[in-house]
């Protein structure tokens, strides 16, 4: 028979459920905070902040005086993946708006943060950084002196045996040295009781686990965790619907803009067609004018040709008359000169040009 008391803290409704492999452990985290009532909670490896924000919410709702610290470089690693500044900025903004008075985010390496915590000051330590055997062992051993006499350590991903994960291997070793129990759902969460002043509820679970009777407790927190994961999935669906609605609105607006543009183009086409018609009419008028001008030019050319022909005839006629008069004169002279020999005065009168000759020859 398991002596385990149910608590409303297990029914926590997360205010923020960022996508994470840790979501299924949020009900247990809330119950753990209630049972341990820690003065100091330190998380090594935070990423999007699912566990960090769950601890903060539990402390706030239970009106505890706890302080919650998140230590991370927010650069990622080979197991969590590498990511940009947006992950840190989003979490930082949410933390400042909701939990600034009870929590702090330390952006640094795990070993760099050691100097900011005194020995024996941490009641709850959550190790969720790089998941290799060597990294997990180093994190535990370097932070062990910082744990208080009530100290509890959480190890995430104790059930993952792929991609170089070594948490399961280290958990198998360290859980033999301290009282411990393991929740096997949601990739596994190991709970190690390193302090000598142990919570009665946690000690009871460790004893039950040692006797092999933790299956029912595992099932309980698994079911509660599934509700949280379902909530996250619903929020993702709603977010997807909101994005889809936004896309519909955007496409609708784009379609309206395209229709307006099409109407404007159609109006421009109509205006251009009207301009083309006007230009065609102007071209026809100009063609008529050109035809009229061309007819006038042809008429002028004919007149010029006639005048030119007339000028040629006049010149030929003058030459013919001159030649004919010269021939006639020559014949007259041949007949008359012998008769006028000795009569110079008459000859001079005869040879003097007549008025009609001067008019004809210009002499």
UniProtKB/TrEMBL annotation:
A molecular-function term among this protein's GO annotations: methyltransferase activity
Q: Which residues form the signal peptide?
A: none
| Keyword Methyltransferase included in the entry's annotation | yes
Which top-level group of life is the source organism from? Bacteria
An example GO BP is:
DIM/DIP cell wall layer assembly
UniProt keywords (A-Z) are: Coiled coil, Methyltransferase, Transferase
Query: Which Gene Ontology terms of cellular component type are present?
Result: plasma membrane
Which species is listed as the source?
Answer: Xanthomonas theicola
Query: What protein is this chain from?
Result: LPS O-antigen biosynthesis protein
User: Where is coiled-coil annotated?
Assistant: 255-310
Q: Which Gene3D superfamilies match?
A: Vaccinia Virus protein VP39
